[in-house]
Amino acid sequence: MAPLLEDPAARDRVMMISFNHVDMHWLKSQIPGIRTQGIIHARHGDPAQVARSAGLSLSVELGMFHPDDALTLHDAGIFIRRHAYKPASIAAMRAMGINIRPALIDWLRAGLIDTLSGDDVAWLAQIVAEAGVAA
Question: Is 110 in the same domain as 125?
């Protein structure tokens, strides 16, 4: 992968993402300009400090996403990505009475999520379209 990332233009198309924030911090020191993102799967008292400590943007696990945290992160200039679960997991949640779709739409409309990713592109496109935000 290193030869690919020697081209600065290639770095614009790549983002390295991991639960291991220490490794992402090290990677940034080895490949200047690489975009990195840390996944957080717990709610932290100071999510902005978590991101700043490793120089990362954040991917907040769906079950841990809270609008107040998003405001704190955005106030600190930190980019937020939300990853939606696989379609089967979303369907299982709905069967249990948990419908994440309205919340995702509201969060997108409010600008609390910068990027939404997931395994079902058509479903994501419907969410983005219904939220009325640019894809």
Answer: yes
Burial of 89 (0-12, 13-18, 19+ CB in 10 A): middle
Count of domains observed in the chain: 2
Secondary element (H or E) of residue 21: helix 21-30
**Same domain? 124 vs 74:** no
pLDDT at residue 2, rounded to an integer: 64
Q: Give the model confidence (pLDDT) of 31-84 as tens digits.
A: 878 888 888 877 777 888 888 888 888 888 777 888 888 999 999 999 898 888
* Domain residue limits at 66: 1-83
CA distance 126 to 66: 22
CB–CB of 124/116 below 8 Å?
yes
- Nearest-angstrom CA–CA distance, 77 and 114: 11
